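Review form for a predicted model. The reviewer records the input and the model, then writes brief findings.
Reviewer: anonymous (R2)
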Amino acid sequence: MTAPAPPLPDIIPGAGTGTPPATIVPPRAKPRLRALDGLRLIAALMVAAYHYGGRDGEISEAWGSSPRTQFPTAHEWFAYGCLGVQIFFVISGFVICMSGWGRPLRSFFASRASRLLPSYWAAVVLVTAVFALPVVAYDAVSPSDALVNLTMLQQPLGADRVLGVCWTLWAELRFYALFALCVVLPGATRARVVLFCAVWTLAAAMARAADEPLLDVVLMPEYAPFFVGGIGVYLIHRDRHDLTAWGITGVSWLTGQHHAVSGLWHAPDPGSFSYRSSLVIIAVVTAGFAAVLLIALGHLHRVNWRWLTVAGALTYPFYLVHEHLGWVTVRALHQGLGLPSYATFALTIAAMLALAWLLNRYVEAWLTPAIRTGLGRGLTLRSTSPSLDLKRT
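Model under review:
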C-alpha cells in the first residue's frame, strides 16, 4: 500500500530568498451598523401598524369592526405605515450591495438563501397549520398552493399566498437576480455598480412609459428607485465625496417619492378607509432615505446598543408572521377576552415579537448555518483543497 503523500507545506512569502517572511495581517472586520438594525425594526413596526389599524379587510373581522372605529384618530397615521416597505427596499439596496461586493456568485446565492428560507418555510407551515384549525375563522389555502408557497414563486405561478407580505419577497428576489447577474457574476466594481444603477433607473422609467407587463415584472418601475437609492447610499458610505453616488441617490429619491404618491394618494373620498396627504407621503419617504443616509455617513454611530442587533435579527421573522397570525391574536384578545383596542394592539405586537424570537432561536440558528454550509461547500472545496487547485491548473 502506498503511503499517503505528506501535506503540502504552507508557502510563506520571502521564504528561501534571504528576505524576512512577510507578516500577514488579517483584514479588520467592519463594525456592524447597529442603527440599521434599529431602522429595520422601525420599518417592520410601521407595516404592522398599517396591517392592524391602517386598513380594512380581514383585520376588521378580527376587531369586530373597522379599525377606523377602534382607533378614531390613530388610524389616519397608521395608514402611512405601508411606506415601511419602501424603507425596507432602501435598506435592502444598501445591504445587498455591501454584502455582494467582492463575493463570488455562489457565495452570494448561499448567503441570500440561508437568510431568507428558514424563517420563511417555518412561517408558511405555521400559518397554514393555524388557519387549518377549526376554531380559526380564516380560510387556509389549498394543499397544492401551500406547497407552491414554499418555493417563493407563488405569485408568478398564480397560486394563493399563505403570507400576505410575501409579495415584497417576490420584489426582493427579482432585485437579487438583477444584481447577481449584472454585478456579482462579472465582479463588483464601482463603475459596474454605477452603470447598473443608471441602466436600471432609465429602463424602469421606459418600462413605465411602455406599459408592458413583462417589463414591469422584470424591472419593477415602482420599486426600482428604492433599491437603486439604497445602492447609491452604499456608494456614499464607501466614499462620501463620490458626486455620482449622490446623484444616484438624489434621482432615486425624486422618482421614488413620485411612485409612492402615485400609488398611495387619492382625492378625499368619504367612502375610502383613509386619506393620505401627498406631503406626508413625501415626508415619510424622505425620512427613510435620510435615515439610511445618516447611518451611512456615520452620523448615528452613537446608536450602537447591542440590543439593536437582536432587534435586527427579529425583524424578518416578525415581518413574516405578524399579519395573518396577528388577525388570530387580535380576535382572541379583543373579542375573546374583551381587552381594549390599544392594549390588544400592544400585546399583539409583543406576541409576534416573542414568536419571532422563537423562530430566530430555534429555526434560523439551526437551519441558516446548515443551508449556507451546504450551498457553499463546493466553493469552499475549490478554494481550500490543494489537490483540487492543482488539478484545475
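Findings: The chain has a mean pLDDT of 89.
Further findings: The first helix runs from residue 34 to 53.
Recommendation: see findings above.
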